[in-house]
Structure formats: structure tokens, C-alpha cells
Predict the 3D structure of the following.
Amino acid sequence: MKKYTFTNGSELPVQTMYCIGRNYAAHAKEMNAVVEEQPLIFLKPSTAYCSNNSTISIPTISNEMHFEGELVVVIGKDGFDISMDEVDSYFAGIGVGFDLTLRDIQSIAKTKGHPWAVAKGFRHSAPISSIIPYSPTMNLEQLEFSVHCNGSLRQSGKTSMMERSVKELIVYVSTIFELQQGDCIFTGTPEGVGAVSNGDELIIQLHQNDVQLRITIDKN
Ligand code: MG
């Protein structure tokens, strides 16, 4: 079973990965989409996880793999229908990751009304950094991250730009799904997503802490 690594050396098995779509208005706009009335949710299998410094191949079924840099929240205990008052106790930690997306496959799925499982859940579609253990002193409303591709800045994210806060997302997801320890939530991507090619190096960095995720795109 795959495991998250925490910055304090602890580990946690990776379980279900819940992903939020269109949580930043500017990204919804660049996709010619609107922010939904309810959060848009899709899943990745736990085996889609990979760790820092992974080399990731563009699947042969696609000609267009995009990076989407996102803040990732790891859930620390089981829960259903979690209230805003108690949500703090459900955090295990915070990290950053890429919601890698086969944009060509996703576009066809959107047109046909088909699920996004292939476009979003393929092997290695969820690289995640090491995880900073949660502390109530973390200001979740003021986190910032950036994405560089081959050294040039491509995405800048601030949790203050989210349509729905990290805590609101956990509360909402838990009204539908039974969360368990080791689940994570990809909280959506800001504008600036783009395609990758073999040889590219992608880095996503969480500014407040010395945590970054580096991946390279290449043939296996
Ligand atoms: Mg995404």
C-alpha cells in the first residue's frame, strides 16, 4: 500500500483521493466552465499516488497531459457529516500535489457526458509532496503556492482565492462520502494550467513551509 510521508517522519497509508473541480473562478473561466452551485467532485484511486521526485510518463492513450497544481489536505480520522465546529480535529496535514489530467480524453468525456475516471485517475496521476502535520495555528485562509515548469512561473494559488474554503470542502465532502484516515482532498487549481512534454520538470511549492514537490515527465 502506498504511503504519505510527513515532514516529521511519520507515515499514513493513502486511501481514497477526492478531487474538487472549479474551485477558483479564474480557472473555471479558462476552461470555459462556470463555478458550480455545489462543489464538483471526482475521485482518483489510491494507487494513482506517487511521491516527490517521480518520473511520470504521458499515457499512450493521450496526446495532451496537463498539470494542475493544488493544495492537498490529508484526513486524519474517520468521519461522516462532519460539522464546521469539529472539522479541525479531522486534519492530518497539508501538502501540495498535481492533479494530472489527460485533457484530450477529458474533453471527449465532457462532450459525450462520460465519467472522468480515465482522464483523471490513470497511474501516477496524483503526485503529492511530503505532508506538513496540521496544527490549529496554521492559517488555512492565507496559504500560497506556486507552480514552475522548467523554471518559469505558471501558476500562483492562494487559498483566499478559493470559492470554497478548505474546511468547507471537507464538511461538504463528508455529507456525501464516509471519510477515513488517509483520504485526501485535492482542493482545486488556480488559472495557468498547461500541457507538458517529455523532459519537462514541474515544481510546486508551498510558500509558508519549506515543502515542494518535483516531478519530471519522461518516457519510462
Ligand atoms: Mg484539478
